[in-house]
Design goal:
The complex is a heterodimer.
Chain A lengths: L1 H4 L1 H23 L31 H37 L1 H16 L2 H9 L6 H27 L3 H8 L4 H9 L4 H24 L11 H9 L7 H28 L14
Helix pairs in contact in A: 2-3, 2-11, 3-4, 3-6, 3-9, 3-11, 4-6, 5-6, 6-9, 7-8, 9-10, 9-11, 10-11
Chain B lengths: L1 H28 L4 H6 L5 H11 L5 H13 L13 H36 L4 H15 L2 H15 L13 H31 L2 H8 L4 H31 L1 H6 L5 H11 L2 H29 L7
Helix pairs in contact in B: 1-13, 5-6, 5-8, 5-10, 5-13, 6-8, 7-8, 8-10, 9-10, 10-13, 12-13
Classes of the chains: A mainly alpha, B mainly alpha.
């Protein structure tokens, strides 16, 4: 397997595996409950008992960081997958049928991408009450657009291929041609898009929680831990710095994985995608 | 060139209309009676009624939509639920601070990022190149708000070199840390992009020709190579600047910088919908305008684009 020898895929994959393991086995890895309060040990510095120290009400920061991986992965993978599904549907219809429906769908894509990414996510999420669902809905509602654009171009290229003409000559329906013949040939750009944007989705979730939206206390989300911890940066920097480091390593891991996959699966850069926007 | 700019300006209209439409529906989806919220709890029924009439909250949705479009075009984005001041006035007051931060971050990022990328491209696969590329990947992956806290902790709290947050009297010492925080991702992106596009161009035949006819290495690199490599770099600069102007929300919150981004955070906490939607709309328009400016600049740098 050429892919497994790529240094970016190796490093990024190892980080991703560690993260998944932390999320699944969180209760067995840590020795404290993530929301167990211990007022006698507020703001304890990192020690053998509390590897990452304790926070403002004596909760174990290490335990919260490990449990935080669950939220990050859940929202990241969830929103990215939902964005992928919507994007593939819209992009396939747009690219396959062309004409007026394509023009209409592409204008919707244009408008979605005309908004600064984080701000559009904020203005959608703020309509709902606080919690993780609004973040998931808002991220999915914004992230599909770049996938739709990528998918449209892939379908437009694929539909001119001979095997599609052959399938059509045999009387295959549009849906059958799309699902059985075109989509399987566009998996590589889709996979790269999904992986590269995972880092972005995780960072956006953390950003929203940092702003006080998204996960609410006592849910251990890295973003809200950084937010609450930042208020005590002078006396207890570990409360915000460790969750931030976990977030940075996670984002780095998925960025490496995405770049590595692109090197291996798409050396000519055909799946170069428009970014979702930055913060 | 003139007709290209006009065509691009015309193409902006449907996108702007769509953006305003989305902002309208987002503002109507927000819970609560906007007239009650705009007037405040202690306001008289007359004032509430006056606001309802002014913004058409008592009329059918399509009329409300028409009024919204009309108001937005006149620059009226409604009243803040919290301060009862016009949203446009708040934006005009706060935006210069956001601009100052974004501009400083961008200038620093361009100088550092482009020069690091240029040196990397001229010394490919050396230690310098590998270290620069590693740090640039690290820079792209570091969440801005975490980087801000790191800098605040080490530079301000531990070393006491700079003030940790705030605006003070507006002195440059308050600007340095937020600008570094905001600009780091751009330094990383610009270094990677400059390196990649320079490497591509350094192999082109016209550079060999330039060298063969005896041009000095400096002239070859600056005049022939970099002038051509600059196009994708300009795109990144423009896109990043647009997103800084429209989204320094996180950095402004970390450093309590009194810009528009910080204000939107306060508005979110108070669920002050006119401020949130008005600011998002304002940012989206800026975002679109800067994108247009990049396209025009692009057409100027590479005349082939105009004929597409």
């Amino acid at each position: 397997m050429k892919a497994l020898r790529h240094p970016y895929i190796l490093t990024g994959g190892a980080i991703a595996l560690l993260l998944v393991a932390a999320a699944i086995f969180a209760p067995w890895i840590v020795s404290y409950e993530p929301d167990a309060i211990d007022l006698h040990n507020r703001y304890d510095a990192p020690s053998w008992n509390h590897w990452f120290g304790t926070d403002e009400i004596g909760r174990d920061v290490f335990s919260r960081v490990i449990h935080g991986a669950r939220i990050s992965l859940l929202i990241g993978v969830g929103a990215r997958t939902m964005g992928l599904i919507i994007g593939v549907l819209v992009g396939s219809v747009s690219g396959y049928y062309g004409g007026k429906i394509d023009a209409l769908l592409q204008r919707i894509v244009d408008i979605t991408m005309a908004f600064p990414f984080l701000l559009l996510v904020i203005s959608i999420a703020v309509i709902f009450s606080e919690g993780l669902w609004p973040v998931f809905i808002a991220l999915s509602a914004v992230m599909w657009a770049s996938m739709a654009r990528l998918m449209r171009s892939q379908v437009m290229i694929a539909k001119e291929r001979e095997y599609v003409a052959a399938a059509r000559a045999f009387g295959a329906s549009d849906a059958r041609i799309l699902i059985q013949h075109i989509l399987p040939n566009t998996y590589a750009p889709g996979l790269i898009w999904w992986t590269m944007g995972l880092a972005h989705a995780i960072m956006a979730e953390a950003g929203l929680s940092f702003l006080g939206m998204g996960a609410q206390p006592p849910t251990p989300s890295w973003g809200s831990m950084i937010n609450y911890g930042s208020q005590a940066i002078r006396v207890a920097p570990w409360v915000s710095l460790f969750p931030g480091a976990a977030l940075a390593v996670t984002v780095l891991g998925f960025n490496l994985l995405g770049e590595g996959l692109r090197d291996v699966l798409d050396p000519r850069g055909q799946s170069q995608q428009a970014p979702d926007g930055q913060q | 060139m003139g007709s290209y700019v006009i065509r691009r300006l015309l193409m902006m209209i449907p996108v702007l209309w769509g953006v305003i439409t989305i902002a309208f529906f987002l503002s109507r989806l927000a819970p609560g009676d906007p007239a009650d919220a705009m007037a405040g709890q202690r306001a008289s029924e007359e004032l509430r009624q006056q606001i309802r009439e002014q913004y058409g909250f008592d009329r059918p949705l399509h009329v409300q939509y028409g009024l919204y479009l009309w108001n937005v075009m006149r620059g009226d984005l409604g009243l803040s639920y919290d301060s009862h001041r016009p949203v446009t006035a708040i934006i005009m007051e706060r935006f210069p601070n956001t601009f100052r931060l974004a501009f400083s971050a961008m200038v620093a990022a361009v100088i550092l990022g482009v020069s690091a990328g240029l040196i990397s491209a001229l010394l490919p696969n050396t230690w310098y190149d590998r270290i620069t590329m590693f740090f640039s990947l690290l820079g792209i992956s570091t969440p801005v708000f975490w980087l801000g806290l790191l800098l605040m902790y080490f530079v301000s709290v531990r070393m006491r070199l700079l003030p940790p947050s705030g605006f003070g009297d507006g002195g440059i010492q308050y600007l340095i840390l937020p600008a570094i925080t905001l600009g780091t991702q751009s330094v990383a992106f610009l270094a990677r992009m400059t390196r990649a596009s320079m490497l591509e161009i350094l192999n082109e035949e016209y550079l060999r020709t330039a060298r063969a006819k005896g041009a000095s290495p400096f002239i070859v690199i600056v005049k022939h190579a970099f002038a051509n490599a600059a196009i994708p770099v300009v795109t990144i600069i423009g896109l990043d600047f647009a997103s800084y102007l429209s989204g320094s929300v996180l950095t402004e919150k970390v450093f309590s910088w009194p810009g528009l981004g910080r204000h939107i955070v306060t508005a979110i906490a108070q669920r002050d919908y006119p401020v949130i939607n008005g600011t998002v709309l304002f940012f989206a328009v800026i975002f679109i305008l800067i994108n247009l400016l990049i396209d025009v600049l692009y057409a100027y740098l590479d005349p082939r684009i105009r004929y597409d």
